[in-house]
Amino acid sequence: MRKNILAISLLLMVLVAACGSNTPTNEPNNGGQDSKETTSVSETKNEEATDSHSSIEVDENLLTVEISVPATFVGEDLTQEDVDKAVQENGYVSGKLNSDGSVTYKMTKGKHKELMAKIKDTIDTQMGEMVGSEDYPNIVNIEANDDYTSFTITTKSTELGLMESMSTLAFYMYGGMYNAFSGEQVDNIHVDFVNEETGQVIQSADSKNMGSGG
């Protein structure tokens, strides 16, 4: 489970810490906007957003995409200079450290596509490292659909142990994080654990049931 927590941090670092380096674009810099309370996608050219402390927001315009990362994900030590460096290194259009501590990045749709590819690669790498690891010795394969809303975990187990059961939370976070950055609202992340020998589903879980006792 330690590695799963680190994995989520890595996903955030893809954007916040500006992993990688790309060639800057020539699109005009119109500056960042404050973020909204909920993740949403808008097809309008100009849409203002309000402050946020808990959710990633994606505004998709005709040519650009704005992503606002809340202060709780950014950290207290980030400065506008750090944001400017991220913009330069990644070729984003602009970046703004907002008064509430959140950060809004504007990028072309091409750059957003590259960002989503990086997040996808990070998730796939982390899932690959879970297979047969010290924490999950019985897991032999992990598969997910394209938008990470459905996971199938193949295991040698006939009955899940504590660590395997707890890994469900990691898959919920992978799916939630991927769709938050893509701008899609997801109602549920589904997880199936399948026995390797029989091919039968031995346990299923749905994120929509968290906290409901279901």
Mean pLDDT rating:
79
What distance lies between the first and last C-alpha atoms, to the nearest angstrom? 23 Å
Strand content: 15-25%
**Quaternary form:** single chain
Question: What keyword list fits this structure?
Answer:
214 residues; alpha+beta; four-stranded antiparallel beta sheet; 5 helices; 34% helix; elongated
Describe it for me?
This protein has helices at 2-16, 71-74, 80-90, 109-130, 162-182, and strands at residues 57-60, 64-69, 94-97, 103-108, 139-144, 150-155, 190-195, 201-206. Helix 1 (2-16) packs antiparallel against helix 4 (109-130) and helix 1 packs parallel to helix 5. Residues 17-53 have low confidence and may be disordered. With 214 residues, it is an alpha+beta fold. The chain has a four-stranded antiparallel β-sheet. It is elongated. It is built from five helices and eight strands; from the N terminus they run αββααββαββαββ. It folds into two domains: 2-114, no CATH class; 136-209, no CATH class.
Helix-strand blueprint:
Blueprint lengths: L1 H15 L40 E4 L3 E6 L1 H4 L5 H11 L3 E4 L5 E6 H22 L8 E6 L5 E6 L6 H21 L7 E6 L5 E6 L8
Parallel strand pairs: 6-7
Antiparallel strand pairs: 1-2, 2-4, 3-4, 5-6, 7-8
